[in-house]
Amino acid sequence: SSTMTLSEAEVQSACGAWEKIYVDAEDNGTAVLVRMFTGHPDTKSYFTHFKGMDSAEEMKQSDQVRGHGKKVFSAINDMVQHLDNSEAFLGIVTPLGKKHATQLKIDPKNFRIICNIILQLMEEKFGGDSKASFEKVTNEICTHLNSIYKEEGW
After folding, report:
1. Which pTM was predicted?
2. Which site among 2, 61, 87, 93 is 20 to 30 Å from 142 CA-CA?
3. For residue 7, what is the DSSP state?
4. Residue 70: CB atoms within 10 Å
5. Is the Cα torsion angle 135, 137, 142, 143 positive or negative in sign?
6. What pLDDT, in 10s, does the model give residues 13-59?
7. pLDDT in tens, 82-138
8. Does an H or E element contain 46, and which?
9. What is the pLDDT of residue 3?
10. What region, left, alpha or beta, does residue 67 occupy, with left being phi > 0 and alpha being psi -120 to 50 degrees?
11. Helices and strands, counts by H and E, the chain
C-alpha cells in the first residue's frame, strides 16, 4: 500500500528516537554494519571489498565500511524526514528498492536483518522506548521494500 500507517504522534516519537542515533551517523552506521557482517557473514558476499575482512576491528577501521555505514544512515534519515508524506517517502524508498533488487540483487531478508540491528543498537544506547517508537518505521520501510521487490519479480 502507498499509505503510511503512522499517526502524527508516532512520527514525532520515531523522529526523536532517530535523531539521537543519527547524531553519530558514521560511527553508529559502522557499528550496525560490523554487527551485520560478523553476525551474518553471508551478507559480506555482496560487498566485494569487505570479503577479506574477518575481524570486527578491521571492519571498524575500514573507510569503505564506514562510508557505507554513513550512506545507509543517510538513506534512512531521508526516509525519516518524510514519514508524514507518503509520496515523498516512496520517492526515496522506491529507487533504493529497485536498485537493490535489480542491480545489486540483494536478498530482501537483509533489510530486516539490518533494521533489527539498528533497533538493537537503539535499545542499548537509548532504552526500550526509543526502540519501540522506531520499530514502526523499520516495519514501514521493510514492507515497502518487500513490495517493490515483488514488483521486480522476486
Report:
1. 0.93
2. 61
3. -
4. 17
5. positive
6. 999 999 999 999 999 999 999 999 999 999 998 888 887 888 999 99
7. 999 999 999 999 999 999 999 999 999 999 999 999 999 999 999 999 999 999 999
8. none
9. 58
10. alpha
11. 7, 0
C-alpha cell at 123: 535499545
What is the identity of the amino acid at 47? F
CA–CA separation, 90 and 97 (whole Å): 10
What is the topology classification, in CATH, of domain 8-152? Globin-like (1.10.490)
Q: What is the model's pLDDT at position 120?
A: 98
Vertex 21 angle, CA 134 and 132, to 5°: 20
Place of cell 540483487: 105
Half-sphere exposure of 121 (CA within 13 A, CB side): 22
